[in-house]
Design brief:
It is built from 5 helices and no strands. It has about 110 residues and is mainly α.
């Protein structure tokens, strides 16, 4: 089923939606009847936030953390790991601390 392509619907939520609509889990999206599509659509609209609403909510949560100058908000502003990950060795490309090994920046010499 192609429900997981919708932002905010993962595998478990897709399975619950299909169980509630009494549709087989292995059925393809192109094989659905219009009645089954409408059942799925009404279940999604009534039960959960998806796509634009969900993205707007998460961006507002991040903006709130930035506005109140919380630690997590400051980490978001600086584009650093927010959830306590190690940042000395990981997230180097985000921080701009790219370390090159011996042979990585070497130019190939032309043979004459």
């Amino acid at each position: 089923m192609g429900l997981t392509a919708v932002f905010g619907i993962g595998r478990t939520r897709a399975q619950k939606i299909l169980d509630e609509a009494k549709i087989d889990h292995g059925k393809k999206a192109k094989d659905l009847s219009s009645d089954e599509e409408n059942k799925i659509r009404t279940i999604i609209e009534s039960g959960s936030k998806v796509e634009g609403d969900l993205k707007r909510e998460t961006s507002m949560n991040i903006k709130r953390l930035k506005d109140i100058r919380a630690y997590r908000g400051i980490r978001h502003e600086r584009r650093l790991p927010v959830r306590g990950q190690n940042s000395k060795t990981n997230s180097r490309t985000v921080r701009g601390n790219v370390r090159n090994t011996m042979g990585s920046g070497r130019r190939k010499t032309e043979k004459t």
